[in-house]
User: Fold this.
Amino acid sequence: MPLSEHEQRLLEQMERALYAEDPKFATALRGSDLRRHFRRRILLGAVGLLVGIGLLLVGVVSKVVVVSVLGFLVMLGAALWAATSWRRMPAVGDLGVASAPGVDSGRRSGKAAKPKVMDRFEERWRRRREEDGR
Assistant:
């Protein structure tokens, strides 16, 4: 259940007061930076991708098909893991935790305003039908 405007203002006022009174404690309460977590996952995915390529090459050179297939699967899994981490990484202002005063914690405006694929298809279909009906 969303907070009312009055409750949101009170909460923001309490956060500002806490941050002004004890910034170190307020920073500790904010939680960890999710961007750092996702960057670490992307880095591990890149390392896994390189390990997979190495296994694939070792398998091809030694003519052991099992090692080649294993290398390909490691490479594919690491690439997918890094890609999903990249897509899930929050924007700079959208960290999913309480933010310090002055930091915009709203959703990315481009994400909400972007129409869905099916909406675009439906719009094109509607325009075509209107043009054909003239």
